[in-house]
Amino acid sequence: MIQGISIAPLSSTINGRIITSDDAEYDKARTVFYGGNDRRPAAIVRAANATEVARVIAFARATNTILAVRSGGHSNAGHSVCEGGIVLDLSAMRTLDIDVEQRTVWAETGLTAIEVTKATAAHGLTVGFGDTGSVGIGGITLGGGVGYLVRKYGLTIDSLLAAEIVTADGQCRFVDAKHHPDLFWAIRGGGGNFGVATRFKFQLHPVDTIVGGLLVLPATPDTIAGFIAAAETAPDDLSAIINVMPAPPLPFLPAEKHGQLVIFAILVHVDGGETGQRAVAPFRALATPLADMIRPMRYPEIYPPDDDSYHPTAVGRTMFVDKIDRPVAETICDYLQSSNASVRVAQLRVLGGALACVPADATAFAHRASRIMVNVASFYTSPEDRVVREKWVSDFAAVLQQSDTGAYVNFLGPEGETQIHKAYPGATWDRLVEIKRRYDPTNLFQLNQNIPPMKAN
Ligand SMILES: Cc1cc2nc3c(=O)[nH]c(=O)nc-3n(C[C@H](O)[C@H](O)[C@H](O)COP(=O)(O)OP(=O)(O)OC[C@H]3O[C@@H](n4cnc5c(N)ncnc54)[C@H](O)[C@@H]3O)c2cc1C
Predict the structure, then answer these.
(1) Rounded to whole angstroms, how far apart are CA atoms 411 and 421?
(2) Using H for helix, E for strand and C for coil, what is the string for 170-212?
C-alpha cells in the first residue's frame, strides 16, 4: 500500500524495479543531485520501456497520485523527487541506436549526456548537451540545452529531429515537424509539462578532436570584460563557459591564490588543430594564466569526471544580460567579494552563433536574441544560512539586471510563477498553455516549471 493506495495492480504489470522504503536501495534511489531535497516518495518505479511508462502514467492518473519524472535527477528545483507519490525513474531505459551514415542517434531518456557523447564520439560525431556529463538527456533536452557547442550547433533542441512521448492519456506519440508539430514545438523548451519523453532522435555533428579545456586567469574588472569581449568576437566555432569565483583549493593552482577571485573558464573550439589554437590565443593573452590546460583532445574529455556522492546545497538565480563591460565586471567582483560562502560564483556564457540563427518562435525556447546568460549561485550550509545566501543571490541578480528580462528554464530553482513567465514570455506562454490544455488538461505533469492548463470556457 502507498498512501492508502494499493500498488499491486501496478506492480503486476511492471517488469522494471519498484522500490519502496522497505528496500535497501531506497535512500540511494530517492537521492537527487542537489542536497536539501530530502523527500520520501511512496514508490520509485524504474520503468523498462514506453509501455511501462504508460502504465505508470495511467496508474497515477486513475489514483490521483502525485507523479515526479526523473531522467538524470539534476533538476535545479528538485522536481524529480516527491514527498509521497511516485517517482517515475527512467534510468533503466538506456538503449542507444546510432545511424552513422545518416548521422543520427535514437537515445532513450535514461541516458546521461556523457553516455550519449562517448557512444557517438566513437564515430567522430556528437550532439551538444551542457557542461556536466551526469545531467540526464531528458531534462536538459526538454528545457533547451546550452553547452560547449552552443555557438557552433545551437541548443540541444536545435539538433532534435523527433521524439517519442507518452502523454497524460497514456498514448505513446511519435512527434516531429510533421507529426503533432504543436507538441514537437512545445517540448523544445517547454520542459516536462507535456508528457514523458522516452526517446529522442538527434542530428549528429562531426566533432572529433577539439582544442579545449580549462583556463584559469586572475579575475579583475579588466580581465572579465576582456574575456567576454574575446568570447563575443571569437568565431562561432568557439564556445566558452566562464565562471568567476574565488579560486578553489585545487592542487594545480598556486596556494597563495586560493580564495582569490579567478576566471575559471572552459573553452571549446571544434577544430583540433592550428585554427583552434589561434582562436584561443586572445583568451590566453589577457593575463598570465594561473593554469592553462587547453590542449587538443577528443571531445568527450572536456567533461570532468563526475562524483556520485557529490550533493551540494546551493541557491541560484539565472538571467540574461546584454553586455558585460568594465563597470558590470566591477559589480561582479564586488558582489563576489562581499560574501563569505564557501562556494560562490557568477557563471557567464556568451550566446549568439547558431543559437541566434533560429527564429524566436520556432521553439518554446524563446531567447534567441539574448546575448549573455548569467547564473549566480552560492552554496549554503543550513536553513538559516540558506536565507542569507538567498538574499545574496537575489540582490546580486537584481544589480546585474539590464534590459533583457528573460530566464532559461533549466536553471530556474523553485522560484514560482513570475520566473516561469520570464522563461516563457508573451506569445510563447499563451501557446504553451493552449497545448498543455490539449495534452494534459488535468495537469498530471505538474512537478516541473509548471505551465498550468488554461481553464476551459
Ligand atoms: C551540475 C549541473 C550542471 C548543469 N549544467 C547545465 C548546462 O551546462 N546547460 C544546461 O542547459 N543545463 C544545465 N543544467 C541544468 C539541467 O539541464 C536541468 O537541471 C535539467 O532539467 C536536468 O535534467 P535531468 O534529466 O538530469 O534532471 P531530472 O531532475 O531528472 O529532471 C528534471 C525535470 O525535467 C523533466 N524531465 C526529465 N526527464 C524527462 C522526460 N524524459 N520526460 C519528461 N520530463 C522529463 C521533469 O519535469 C523533471 O522534473 C545543469 C544542472 C546541474 C545540476
Answers:
(1) 14
(2) CCEEEEECCCCHHHHHHHCCCHHHHCEEEEEEEECEECCEEEE
pLDDT at 6: 77
- From ligand 1's centre to the CA of 414, what distance in Å? 14
| Separation of CA 327 and ligand 1 centre (Å) | 33
Kindly give the distance from the C-alpha atom of residue 108 to the centroid of ligand 1, in angstroms, as a whole number: 15
Helix residue ranges per DSSP H, 4-149: 8-11, 26-29, 50-63, 113-121, 137-143
Instruction: Verify whether ligand 1 is closer than 6 Å to residue 140 (CB atom).
Output: yes
86's grid cell: 511516485
What's the 140 CA to ligand 1 centre distance in angstroms? Answer: 4
Q: Which three cell numbers stand for residue 279?
A: 582562436
Question: Which residues share a beta bridge with 315?
Answer: 378
Is residue 25 classed exposed, middle or buried when 0-12, 13-18 and 19+ CB atoms within 10 A define those classes? Answer: exposed
330 phi and psi angles, rounded to 5 deg: -65, -40
Contact present, 223 and 244 (Cβ < 8 Å): no
- The sign of the CA dihedral 348, 354, 356, 361 is negative
Q: Give the integer Cα–Cα distance in Å for 59 and 6.
A: 10
- Residue matched to cell numbers 490521483: 64
User: Cβ(80) to ligand 1 under 6 A?
Assistant: yes
Please state, in angstroms and rounded to a whole number, the distance separating the CA atoms of residues 7 and 255: 56
Q: Which atom of ligand 1 is nearest to the CA of 445?
A: 47
Tell me the per-residue pLDDT of 434-450, one tens digit each, with 9 for 90 and over. 999 999 999 999 999 99
Residue nearest to atom 52 of ligand 1 (CA): 74
Amino acid identity at 60: A
Q: Grid coordinates in use for 366?
A: 524563446
Instruction: Copy the grid coordinates of residue 43.
Output: 514508490
Q: Which of 30, 410, 436 to mutate to test the pocket of ligand 1 (most atoms within 8 A of CB)?
A: 410
Q: How far is the CA of 4 from the centre of ligand 1 (A)?
A: 31
133 lines ligand 1 (CB under 6 A): no
Question: What would the mean pLDDT of 4-23 be, rounded to a whole number?
Answer: 87
- The owner of cell 536539501 is 36
pTM of the model: 0.97
- State whether the beta carbon of 191 lies less than 6 angstroms from ligand 1: yes
pLDDT band at 3 (very low <50, low <70, confident <90, very high): low
Reported in sequence order, the residue ranges of 204-313 that DSSP labels E, i.e. its strands, are 205-206, 209-218, 238-246, 261-269, 291-292, 295-298
Residue of 75, 106, 345, 408 to test ligand 1 pocket, by largest number of atoms within 8 Å of CB: 75
Distance from residue 152's CA to the centre of ligand 1 (Å): 22
